[in-house]
């Protein structure tokens, strides 16, 4: 009898062990609805063959309350990864992904779920470590309501030993806020750092670009699955107004493949109302077929979104696509729009990727037909009304003598060199 009980205990433990090995990556984003009401979306990436499944997840709002969200989408991706989306969809019951706060303040929205998948190299005993991600919401009426950035590039890229690995989350902020990036430790229950967690081992360095968001692993030294986490912080008028954490897994394999190379223009700018167009080329020096795609803010705007043609660009060795964006006054903002070009090859056993980020700043047209006339001891200025109302104002400078200065394209203000 004791042997039967002992066997049953081992069987139940084994079932629990197997069914819990699934969480690979996760993030939480939010959208302002009205007043003090916000709605969230949880996205997770799980190990497809695992029998564990989560038709619902709990979200904790940071004010002592919680809600249960239904999964509205599950998609099978390559390399045994499943995408799971939890939000509101008509027909699935109450709108549980919406929450109304009682007052302005700073709230840490979070989700935790057992367990991470087995065998993560830099997380000791990872199969028994819950997945935990958090997102900070700041409700500040003096700074205006806020939407979190959305992450347009999924964390599904695979790397090779001794080859540089690059990932970019493709963060887009619909409010035009400034974004910055920094690495953090992966967390577990209660939001504490996982005991024994270490950043992935590298031949040279493992880092994230604070401005572009490029995660650069130069270079992996050992095969395996690794988890990392980074925070995307939003800034408005110099004040941090929120953040989103992505916890993601990177699989490193042994292979002799080389990532594709992307050739694109450097950062640029365009005057609202004008069209911007440039070619982007992806080359694979190993002769593999390549697929070239693009994501980013210019494709997400409601009015006159950008396009690439062809979309995607696919072919052998070298492919090219043309980016085109007819800008309007509604695209004017202080922060540049980012476009993330991604090239993927089709080598076996690993499809390697590369990213190229292009920053595009859209500015208001300059005033035209300026006329100055002397009126007694004053000068009266006239100029045509500009077509864009987004300009906050104009600065008028007075200088004794002429400079002959002619501003170049997209130069705003008066350079100090003019005197």
Topology:
Elements: H1 2-19, E1 23-34, E2 37-47, E3 56-60, E4 66-77, E5 81-86, E6 98-100, E7 105-113, E8 131-139, E9 150-151, E10 158-160, E11 165-167, E12 171-172, E13 178-184, E14 187-188, E15 192-193, E16 202-208, E17 215-220, E18 224-236, E19 239-253, E20 261-263, E21 268-271, E22 275-283, E23 289-296, H2 297-300, E24 307-309, E25 313-316, E26 318-326, E27 337-345, E28 353-363, E29 371-375, E30 378-382
Overview of the structural elements:
With 419 residues, the chain is mainly β. It contains 2 helices and 30 strands. The protein has helices at residues 2-19, 297-300; strands at 23-34, 37-47, 56-60, 66-77, 81-86, 98-100, 105-113, 131-139, 150-151, 158-160, 165-167, 171-172, 178-184, 187-188, 192-193, 202-208, 215-220, 224-236, 239-253, 261-263, 268-271, 275-283, 289-296, 307-309, 313-316, 318-326, 337-345, 353-363, 371-375, 378-382. The longest helix has 18 residues, at 2-19.
If helices are DSSP runs of H or I spanning 4 or more residues, what is the number of helices? Answer: 2
The helicity comes to: under 10%
Residue windows where pLDDT falls under 50 for at least 5 positions: 1-20
Report the sheet with the most strands, covering strand number, pairing sense and barrel closure.
Answer: 6 strands, antiparallel
Query: What overall geometry do the principal axes of the alpha carbons give?
Result: globular
Radius of gyration: 25 Å
The overall strand count is 30
Mean pLDDT: 91
Helix/strand structural class = mainly beta
**What is the first-to-last residue Cα distance?**
96 Å
Give the amount of beta strand, in percent. Answer: over 45%
């Amino acid at each position: 009898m004791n042997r039967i009980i002992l066997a049953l205990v081992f069987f139940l433990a084994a079932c629990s062990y197997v069914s819990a090995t699934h969480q690979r990556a996760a993030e939480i984003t939010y959208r302002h609805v009205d007043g003090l009401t916000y709605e969230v979306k949880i996205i997770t990436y799980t190990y497809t063959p695992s029998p564990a499944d989560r038709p619902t997840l709990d979200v904790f709002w940071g004010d002592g309350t919680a809600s249960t969200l239904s999964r509205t989408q599950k998609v099978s991706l390559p390399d045994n990864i499943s995408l799971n989306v939890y939000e509101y969809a008509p027909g699935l019951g109450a709108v549980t992904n919406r929450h109304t706060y009682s007052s302005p303040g700073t709230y840490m929205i979070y989700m935790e779920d057992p367990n991470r998948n087995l065998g993560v190299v830099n997380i000791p005993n990872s199969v028994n470590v819950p997945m935990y991600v958090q997102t900070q919401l700041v409700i500040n009426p003096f700074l205006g309501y806020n939407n979190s950035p959305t992450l347009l590039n999924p964390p599904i890229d695979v790397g090779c030993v001794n080859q540089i690995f690059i990932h970019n989350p493709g963060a887009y902020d619909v409010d035009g806020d400034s974004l910055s990036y920094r690495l953090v430790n992966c967390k577990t229950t209660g939001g504490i750092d996982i005991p024994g967690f270490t950043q992935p081992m590298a031949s040279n360095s493992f880092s994230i670009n604070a401005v572009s968001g490029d995660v650069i692993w130069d270079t992996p030294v050992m095969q395996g699955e690794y988890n990392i986490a980074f925070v995307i912080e939003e800034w408005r008028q110099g004040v941090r107004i929120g953040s989103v954490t992505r916890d993601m897994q990177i699989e490193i394999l042994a292979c002799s493949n080389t990532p594709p190379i992307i050739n694109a223009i450097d950062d640029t700018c365009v005057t609202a109302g004008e069209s911007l167009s440039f070619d982007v080329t992806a080359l694979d020096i190993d002769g593999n077929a390549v697929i070239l795609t693009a994501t980013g803010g210019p494709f997400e705007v409601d009015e006159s979104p950008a396009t690439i043609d062809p979309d995607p660009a696919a072919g052998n060795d070298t492919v090219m696509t043309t980016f085109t964006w007819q800008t309007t006054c509604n695209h004017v903002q202080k922060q540049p729009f980012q476009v993330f070009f991604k090239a993927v090859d089709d080598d076996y056993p690993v499809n390697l990727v590369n990213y190229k980020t292009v920053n595009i700043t859209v500015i208001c047209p300059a005033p035209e037909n300026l006329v100055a006339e002397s009126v007694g001891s004053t000068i009266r200025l006239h100029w045509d009304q500009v077509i864009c109302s987004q300009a906050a104002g104009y600065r008028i400078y007075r200088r004794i003598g002429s400079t002959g200065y002619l501003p170049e394209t997209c130069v705003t203000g008066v350079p100090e060199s003019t005197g």
